[in-house]
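Researcher: Batch entry, complex prediction.
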Amino acid sequence: MLKQTRNWSADPVLSVEHLTMRFGGLVAVDDLSFNVGRGDITALIGPNGAGKTTVFNCVTGFYKPTEGRIALRREGAVEDEKIAELTRSGRQYSDGETSPVFLLERMTDFRITEVAGVARTFQNIRLFGGMTVLENLLVAQHNKLMRASGYSVAGLLGLPGYRRAAAAAKETAVEWLRRVDLLDRADDPAADLPYGAQRRLEIARALCTNPVLLCLDEPAAGLNPRESAELNTLLKYIRDEHGVSVLLIEHDMGVVMEISDHIVVLDYGKKISDGTAAEVRSDPKVIAAYLGVDDEEVEEVERDLDVKTGPKAAEGGAL
Amino acid sequence: MSDMTSPSAADHPEGAERLSEERREAMRGEPPFVEAPTTDSRLVRSLKEAGITAGLVALLTLFFFLFRTDIAVGGLALSLDPVTWIVAIAIAFVGRFLLSFFVFAGERPSVGGWKKVAAATARWPIGKALGAILLLVALTLPFLLSTFLPSQNRYLLDLAILILTYVMLGWGLNIVVGLAGLLDLGYVAFYAVGAYSFALLATNFDLGFWVCLPMAGLFAALWGIVLGFPVLRLRGDYLAIVTLAFGEIIRVVLLNWYDFTGGPNGVLGIPKPTLFGLEFSRGEGSFSDFFGISYSPVQRFVFLYYIILALALLTNFVTMRMRKLPVGRAWEALREDEIACRSLGINTVNVKLTAFATGAMFGGFAGSFFATRQGFISPESFTFIESAIILAIVVLGGLGSQLGVVIASVVMIGGIELLRNLTGLQAIFGAGFDPTQYRMLIFGLAMVLIMVWKPRGLVSTRSPSAVYKEKKTIGADLVAQGEGH
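Model: Structure tokens for the complex:
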């Protein structure tokens, strides 16, 4: 039972180690370490300004972290020794072996999506508004189609190889549109969709890049309860049927508690709690961070913090 | 993403889109706006409006029509011309009244009629039909001209060649500005690179037009990449300024590198293109000699016309084809949102460079055609005004629209020429009116009016590059404009 629920220590797809991000004098993320289990839905939560989106931007390469290592194990578990060796070698990733490892902090943003297989969505939706829903999903398959079109040469000549690849890409796009219930709007411009549909489209677009890890930045923001429930179903489907690990930032606790296998709580750039939904929910530090505490209790909580951080770190290392 | 530090101009259109989206969302299912009940009857209201219009016209034309100062013996003379003045006022009054009474305040809203027209033409692709007609006219133009207007044949053919050159340049720039959304104010640089590549290769190495043409295109594409690198990180106004500077650098280098380019003297004696080795001249081994027809100088113009037509059609074909390829889709995605592109694993550096290189290549082709047509080039042909005209064609036609560029080229280049000999305007402005002196003024006014009427260009809708079931055009308000607009 323990092994099954603690998937993130046994078989992590992503491990963030000692991640620190400073903007001038501001420490947005401070020595943060956590794992994302393969095939898990992991939620990154915390009050506003806790540094969640900064972590996201570091993982997806939009920021270069000041310190720390972000290792993605694309296919299976890899010994720590191998990752340490790769780190020393100065290379960005070890490919061509049975279990490739990618050091995301060394890679540029588009390479992370293209090679390592990490896709993301944005807090304020970033669709290609003037392009149709279908086109949005075809753009997401750019690299695959680019190779198939012989870097445009075969495509310009209209060779059959490219035409097959284009038809297959359209098929993939249509399949995802059916899944997110947008097929009847395939030929509408993306900016014309209602808000909830835009959210779903952005997720479908990210999935068209064929990722192993999907990073969602507040996917339920602005959704009504029915749409939130649909989102839960979609995320579970992605996890169960496609084996895509999901890392999400969310403020909607209903969504977080229902679908998360693993929750990491941040406050002021530090991890204050890490565990299953039940564990996190009953953690006094999480309650303190979210609801605040009385003045008398502050010292108590601080003492508690000191006591707990020591053994907790050791436990994380052992597992 | 709100705390991302990288600046993004794409934030603005997104905000605007969100607003318009919300507005649309809020209005969905609502009945159209209900007009407040009017107190005046239709006739009274129309009369009032017409009166106001007439009053304004009366005021505005007071010193133009009613009082006139003319040069007379011993100074100026003030003359009174109430008839013209009253006629102008009457025209304004009647025109406004008719418009108000029958169109603006008619019982049946005039918009309804437009909607019906739009619905009727929706199934019938007007753009496609117009494109086909234009293509047919373009293909048969030399014959049409020699049949119907033999007296002005040569002049009009020359004008058609000029227009087609601008169509081709417009299509080339459309890739960079319209599709990839990168504002390029120095496009004439590639035109110059193409022209000088051909001219120097032809005069120094004795190569013909058809050998030099691909080389000129490749050189221009190379320079496109050279320009692409420094502007990769630039956005907005800065991008426009650097491309502008690039265009000027090329011109100044051509002007001052005397040993290589001939400086302000330019390059002379550029060979004319041949048809499989047949020259368009008198005598042995010429085109007319080979086919046994009598020599006419128009033959060379017809040949040049078909060359530029073929080059322009090639540009159009490649652009249309590329739009449906992943690279073309990536261009448009880049225009819509660069950050989203990167999040999807698209190497935006390559996308920008291919856009610059492809656009520059067609500019280079057009440049070498220009060199061979003129037989002489100098840096004076490649000033900033050329870039501005080409950009104006693209913007006026509608960013990203191929048909729009054709219409805008005909309107702009043909319009400027037309105004040169529009003596008919003398009937309005008096016998002393010289249209050539006012043509740029009239032309500028016309452009302002068109842009007020259609701010996003003549053809502002975007047609999708991939269709699932039904092809729907996308309104200009949804399409982002990219950097530097």
